[in-house]
Design a protein that fits this description.
Elements: H1 4-9, E1 17-22, E2 28-36, H2 40-43, E3 45-50, E4 53-58, E5 75-78, E6 81-85, H3 89-98, H4 103-106, E7 122-130, E8 133-144, E9 147-159, E10 165-170, E11 187-190, H5 195-205, E12 211-220, E13 226-232
Antiparallel strand pairs: 1-2, 1-10, 2-12, 3-4, 5-6, 6-7, 7-8, 8-9, 10-11, 12-13
Amino acid sequence: MLQLDQELKSNEYPGRGIVMGRSADGKYAVTAYFIMGRSSNSRNRVFVEEGEGIRTEAFDPSKLEDPSLIIYAPVRVLNHDTIVTNGDQTDTVYDGLARGETFEQALRGREFEPDGPNYTPRISGVMHIEKGSYDFAMSILKSNDGDSSCCNRYTFAYDNPAPGEGRFLHTYMHDGNPLPSFAGEPKKVAISGTIDSFAETVWDSLDADNKVSLFVRYIDIATGEYETRIINKNR
């Protein structure tokens, strides 16, 4: 099991990342989502709450350039499902689940982002919490090692996650030009502490120049009640 803070500190640019797992005391389903940016357009963002979820918006609307890949709802909630993604596929998953499709089926019609030569992967996760039970799944849609004619689709499902364990999926292996897509299974990482200490650890471990915003949520598995923390570099 890896230490999440060390994974983040050792990687200047993991891009956007999703963590899902279970608190060390076993009581809470835990998720975190962060965004980073190298361009002024990407850095000109904040997370704001919207209903039970969040959305991104421009910190300074006058400086907003292309909104197509940076303005979206990263988190939405449908009944017992909490959906977290790095793009507008949040809506795709939400609509698919509402139609009775599985998480994997809902994403079948989507692929990586059209931002060549990076072809940023679309990463997604869904947490299902109902009647005291908890499971989650994660997905990555990526180009075939930079070949945009082929989309590789991977889904990973985790039943009854163990206390203190999480999975970490991010868009890029590291900084580069072009940016290399994440490879392999979501990383097994330790989850510990309260929502505040966990959020602080993640935020403080992200590269100071590139980090933009962080969302963290702890959901009580027994009751479904939740707490949320949002940290924005632009205040």
